[in-house]
From TrEMBL:
Domain of life: Bacteria
Helicase ATP-binding domain span: 28-195
Family matches, as Pfam families: DEAD, Helicase_C
Protein name: ATP-dependent DNA helicase RecQ
Keyword presence, tRNA processing: no
Signal peptide: none
Residues in coiled coil: none
Length: 482
């Protein structure tokens, strides 16, 4: 058994810290003891240390399954900064020569990052089976439940991957998971709930003020976004469900607020996305207008605000996205603007992105007709058919998934409509027993959003392109009084 003294020595010598953040030590001791572990730690609390540090105390490789290229790039950069060279991100961005070299020298890498799709490739799986894997890490493990069924079904193959590579221990990490989602993740990874150590810390981020406000229409929403961005301390992120709207509002803010605004979404080239991300991380950009493609790979400590222009699809998504703010512990704010039609727009997205009963029936009746169709819904159905799922099973699967998504969306609506403390509502949703003392720094339930009292007003600078509206405080106070 590795002693705590050795763990603390590694923490200081390798990472330069003298103390752990809440939850880290408990997770690290569990995985060092060879115990399968499921950890829920709040956003911004250094989950990556929970597998990085054990890498220096365990023989064998640390294999990390990660959902996003940007997240892998961030983790690799962190390890390189610490002087660790034995790091590989096995992604589609690798050129063929580098991929061949990496696979030929696979056993020389200590930390191996890869996506679930990459891990499900037969060649990669065979190479992993040849390693002595000390720890299999599933980072952002909520993606198994959130994306596995209807977006990235390769997540469903992680159970067979785990059985094939036989790691000494498995670590699932996330910041958000209800009891139902926790049970789903454990089942999909093939982890025994009784034998797995479950470490659950509060999801609350007390330094993020929670504000919601209803607007009459899109025109008013645009005006409010401009007014907020003129006043709020920077940097900040604005989330959208629409790529087109992210681009439109970025252009509006460049005109009305500052030229240091850019958009970010999945239709951009990987080079363009990386460039925007790096400019934001290094302070060259002040505001990012983004879809949820911009998120898990962003570990910028001083984000002061997150605005939601569109309604998030669930409280899990909302909590993940506002968790980009205030990682330095300083006061920050999350603002959600919504209009009456936003719920139906999100409900339509849920319906339109899942194969309906008629399409499933047509596909299973004549799969050859769809053999060349490059449509996400058809590709999903092809996956399930190739894995020997019957039409009846697939019909049931997607009907259940549709209901789950609509229930999650209704919980989001209930959060908006509650007259009570919004922070307590979130904690209750996640069965978090933390009791909230509701005050002026908590949320805008029954009180206006006072940016000045929160010390979130930024001074006017030479980079501002428009004069500030002198009535901003009255207008914002009226808007954020529930």
């Amino acid at each position: 058994m590795i002693e705590m003294e050795q763990i603390m020595q590694t923490l200081q010598q390798r990472f330069g810290y003298t103390a752990f953040k809440p939850g880290q030590a408990e997770v690290i001791r569990a995985v060092l003891g060879g115990q399968d572990t499921f950890a829920i730690l709040p956003t911004g609390t250094g989950k990556s240390l929970c597998y990085q540090l054990p890498g220096y105390l365990l023989a064998g490789q640390i294999v990390i399954v990660s959902p996003l290229l940007s997240l892998m790039q961030d983790q690799v950069a962190q390890l390189h900064y610490l002087g660790e060279k034995r790091v590989l991100a096995l992604t589609s961005a690798l050129d063929p020569g580098m991929r061949r070299y990496s696979l030929a020298h696979f056993e020389q890498y200590k930390f191996i990052f890869l996506s679930p799709e990459m891990a499900n490739q037969e060649q990669i799986r065979r190479k992993l089976q040849q390693l002595d894997i000390a720890l299999l890490v599933v980072d952002e493990a909520h993606c198994i439940s959130q994306w596995g069924i209807d977006f990235r079904p390769d997540y469903l193959a992680l159970k067979s991957l785990r059985a094939a590579i036989r790691p000494q221990a498995t670590l699932a990490l996330t910041a958000t998971a209800t009891k139902r989602v926790r049970a789903d993740i454990l089942a999909k990874l093939g982890l025994d709930p009784e034998a797995t150590k479950q470490i659950v810390h509060s999801v609350d981020r007390r330094n993020i003020y929670l504000a919601t406000a209803e607007v009459a229409d899109e025109a008013e929403k645009n005006q409010r976004v401009v007014a907020l961005c003129q006043q709020l301390k920077q940097p900040g992120i604005i989330y959208f469900s629409s790529r087109q709207k992210a681009e439109e509002i970025a252009a509006l803010l460049q005109q009305k607020v500052s030229p240091r605004v850019a958009f970010y979404h999945g239709a951009m080239t990987s080079q363009d996305r990386f460039a925007v991300q790096q400019q934001f991380m290094h302070g060259k950009l002040a505001i990012i207008c983004a879809t949820n493609a911009f998120g898990m790979g962003i570990n910028k400590a001083d984000v002061r605000f997150v605005i939601h222009y569109h309604l998030p699809s669930s409280l899990e998504s909302y909590l993940q996205e506002i968790g980009r703010a205030g990682r330095d512990g300083q006061q920050s704010v999350a603002i959600l603007l919504y209009e009456a039609r936003d719920f139906q727009l999100q409900a339509n997205l849920v319906t339109n992105t899942l194969p309906d009963a008629a399409l499933i029936k047509q596909y299973f009746a004549q799969p050859q007709r769809f053999a060349t169709a490059a449509i996400p819904e058809i590709e999903l159905l092809q996956f399930y058919r190739q894995h020997h799922q019957s039409e009846a099973a697939v019909q049931q699967l997607f009907a259940k998934r549709r209901n789950e998504k609509l229930l999650a969306l209704r919980s989001m609506l209930a959060f908006l409509q509650t007259p009570n403390c919004k922070r307590q509502f979130i904690l209750n949703y996640f069965t978090d027993t933390t009791k909230i003392v509701h005050d002026a720094t908590c949320c805008n339930a029954g009180q206006p959003l006072d940016l000045a009292a929160l010390s979130l007003i930024r001074p006017a600078t030479a980079t501002d392109t428009v004069a500030v509206d002198q009535n901003w405080q009255e207008r914002l106070a009226a808007l954020f009084t529930n």
